[in-house]
């Protein structure tokens, strides 16, 4: 798995054992107004923060798309995090459907 690059260079470039993994998220929402959207998004961000993760993205009353990654410099999203977030989303009546992608390299997209 190690390339010919030195450990120090692999770390600087976030390669091999230092790769940072994240996941894409697409949600279809059934929000009636902006306040309902703000409530679900605030709750979602707080929940994701409790997992020591962060979300970047955007949307409107009908959909939200984003990328979830770790708050740690060399941290990654885990399969356990994905299932935990999926379970949380399933419990929200405003979320009509959602799709969590596979883990991808947050820096290189592979």
Could you characterize what this model shows?
The chain has 110 residues and is α+β, with helices and mostly antiparallel strands. It is built from 3 helices and 5 strands. The protein has helices at 7-12, 34-50, 79-90, and strands at 21-29, 53-59, 63-70, 95-100, 104-105. Strands 1, 2, 3, 4 and 5 form a 5-stranded antiparallel sheet that branches. The longest helix has 17 residues, at 34-50. It is elongated.
Notable traits:
single chain; 110 residues; alpha+beta; 5-stranded antiparallel beta sheet; 5 strands
What's the short version?
By secondary structure, this protein is of the alpha+beta class. The protein has helices at residues 7-12, 34-50, 79-90, and strands spanning 21-29, 53-59, 63-70, 95-100, 104-105.
SSE order in H/E notation? HEHEEHEE
What share of the residues lie within helices? 25-40%
Label the overall shape.
elongated
Distance between the termini: 15 Å
Give the SSE layout.
Elements: H1 7-12, E1 21-29, H2 34-50, E2 53-59, E3 63-70, H3 79-90, E4 95-100, E5 104-105
């Amino acid at each position: 798995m190690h390339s010919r690059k030195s450990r120090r260079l692999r770390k600087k470039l976030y390669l091999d054992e230092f790769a940072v993994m994240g996941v894409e998220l697409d949600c279809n929402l059934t929000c009636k107004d902006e306040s309902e959207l703000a409530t679900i998004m605030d709750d979602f961000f707080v929940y994701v923060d409790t997992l020591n993760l962060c979300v970047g993205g955007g949307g409107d009353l009908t959909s939200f798309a984003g990328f979830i990654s770790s708050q740690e410099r060399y941290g990654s999203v885990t399969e356990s995090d994905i299932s935990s977030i999926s379970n949380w989303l399933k419990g929200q009546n405003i979320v009509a459907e959602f799709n969590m992608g596979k883990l991808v390299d947050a820096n290189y997209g592979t």
